[in-house]
Design a protein that fits this description.
Number of domains: 2
Bound molecules: ligand LCS
Strand order of the largest sheet: 1-7-6-5-4-2-3
Strand content: 5-15%
Largest sheet: 7 strands, mixed
Structural class: alpha/beta
Low-confidence stretches: none
Number of helices: 15
Shape: globular
Number of strands: 12
Order of helices and strands: HHHEHEHEHEHEHEEHHHEHEHEEHEH
CATH topology of the largest domain: Aspartate Aminotransferase, domain 2
CATH superfamily of the largest domain: Type I PLP-dependent aspartate aminotransferase-like (Major domain)
Distance between the termini: 55 Å
Helix content: 25-40%
Mean pLDDT: 97
CATH class of the largest domain: Alpha Beta
Length: 394
């Protein structure tokens, strides 16, 4: 029933029910590590999966707080089931390691968050899993990358930090034809603007640290997909243990209640900021999927209902001019991460993507002059005024 409601109503209501014991209106934080069984038979039945219920916080469905968060996020992504994690990286790690083994082949977007790149290039490669980093904006290159042993395609769109956009529906279709899973990192767009599962992907995952939590006060990750996928993932999570804490699950519930409102404002402010930057003589180029000048604007328009709050731009005068700009902002914070209520600015080549080898960064467009912004929900005039005064100092 909840899935038929509109998105904003689902943000507020999905998963929520009054606490059956005391009637608390707001979902309580079940800050507990274990659950008491009525008797030994019940404990055994729950461990055997013969009776639904809670057993231990590391084991699915974790706690009632986690269950509400998972139900809410699954309703927003329009998926059947979900699993929470301690961070976005824990979510990505579980998804790849639970589904790939030595000798398998993974196709990944060539521009991904720095730690994702290194997880794939170092850890997976070290385990004998073959990885091809492909420019997924080029469907011909994706088609040519499939091998006999390709078991998974991992897409990040829009991509961190170049904002490249790839066609989820087309690539998920190719993956299906080859019997491979398609996974989308939906962190930048959020389910408010992009629904990978509806576009044909098998799994949508997000770092909750960003827009889902929304207030830069937690680390978390979440994976949404089919019941079958989640059943396969559950033992991996149980054995490796990287789940979200109950307090973080509660913060994510609270964050999601305003996701629709925040994302509208993030996107409105990002477009205004992108247009301001495009008109500045100090700026060489701007990448924001909502701009007509974005190379994949048409794909973005097709699969996204809005363009979120992330953008990047190249400063004339290279890294030195960029550094002076970042050192001169005062309203904006010079910080990594994204999706906070306030505006953040950072330099991927020396920060979020410093772990990516320089020759790879250069090849995929993570250039030294690239500055990334996570545009917040302040009044846009103040964000622009801050950038204006900072440009005056470079
Ligand atoms: N996926 C994307 C697209 C990300 O940008 C990040 C983190 C992650 C996954 C990992 O999430 P975490 O484990 O941090 O919850 N991105 C960051 C960034 O751009 N700056 O700091 C972290």
């Amino acid at each position: 029933m909840q899935e038929k409601m509109k998105f904003g109503t689902r943000c507020v209501h999905a998963g929520e029910k009054p606490d059956p014991v005391f009637g608390a209106h707001t979902t309580p934080i079940f800050q507990t590590s274990t659950f008491v069984f009525a008797n030994a038979g019940q404990g055994a039945a729950r461990f055997a999966g013969k009776e639904a219920g809670y057993v231990y916080t590391r084991i699915s469905p974790n706690t009632p707080t986690h269950a509400v968060f998972v139900e809410k996020v699954a309703a927003l992504e329009e998926g059947d089931a979900g699993q929470t994690f301690a961070s976005g990286m824990a979510a990505i790690t579980a998804v790849v390691l639970a589904n790939l083994k030595q000798g398998d082949h993974l196709i990944s977007t060539n521009v991904v968050y720095g730690c994702t790149y290194n997880l794939f290039s170092e850890i997976l490669s070290g385990l004998g899993i073959e990885v091809s980093f492909i420019d997924t904006t080029d469907l011909g290159k994706v088609r040519a990358a499939f091998q006999e042993n390709t078991k998974m395609v991992f897409l990040e769109t829009p991509a961190n930090p170049t904002m490249n956009v790839c066609d989820i529906g087309e690539i998920a279709g190719m993956a299906r034809e080859h019997g491979a899973l398609s996974i989308v990192d939906n962190t930048f767009a959020t389910p408010y603007f992009q629904k990978p599962l509806q576009l044909g992907a098998d799994v949508s995952l997000s770092s909750c640290t960003k827009y889902i939590g929304g207030h830069a006060d937690l680390l978390g990750g979440v994976v949404v997909g089919s019941l079958d996928f989640m059943k396969k993932l559950a033992p991996f999570v149980e054995y490796t243990g990287g789940i979200m804490g109950p307090h973080e699950a509660w913060l994510c519930i609270r964050g999601l209640k305003t996701l629709h409102l925040r994302m509208e404002k993030h996107a409105e402010n990002a477009l205004k900021t992108a247009e301001f930057l495009e008109a500045r003589p100090e700026v060489e180029w701007v990448r924001y999927p909502g701009l007509r000048s974005h190379p994949q604007h048409d794909v973005a328009k097709k699969q996204m209902s809005g363009y979120s709050g992330m953008l990047s731009f190249g400063v004339r005068g290279g890294i030195e001019a960029g550094r002076r700009l970042m050192n001169s902002v005062s309203l904006c914070s010079l910080a990594v991460s994204l999706g906070a209520t306030d505006t953040l600015i950072q330099h991927p080549a020396s920060m979020t993507h410093a772990c990516v080898p320089p020759e790879v960064r250069k090849k995929v467009g993570i250039t030294d002059e690239l500055v990334r912004m996570s545009v917040g929900i302040e009044d846009p005039e103040d964000i622009i005024a801050d950038l204006e005064q900072a440009f005056g100092k470079i």
